[in-house]
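Run log // design_07
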C-alpha cells in the first residue's frame, strides 16, 4: 500500500518505494530464517500489533 502511494510521487517516490520494498524483503527473509530455525521472533514495531490481533481471534 505504501509503495503505491510513493509511486504517485515523481522521482523521490520511486526511490522511497524501492527502499520500502527492499526493507520488506529483508524483513521477510529474516522472518523465514527465524521460523526455519524454530525460533520465536517478534519484530520490534509490528510484533505487538500482530500479537494483539492474533489474540483477539480466540481460536
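design_07 sequence
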Amino acid at each position: 500500500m505504501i509503495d503505491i502511494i510513493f509511486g504517485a510521487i515523481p522521482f523521490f517516490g520511486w526511490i522511497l518505494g524501492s527502499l520500502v520494498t527492499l526493507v520488506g524483503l529483508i524483513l521477510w527473509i529474516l522472518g523465514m530464517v527465524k521460523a526455519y530455525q524454530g525460533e520465536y521472533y517478534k519484530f520490534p514495531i509490528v510484533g505487538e500489533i500482530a500479537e494483539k490481533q492474533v489474540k483477539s481471534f480466540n481460536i
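The chain has a mean pLDDT of 86.
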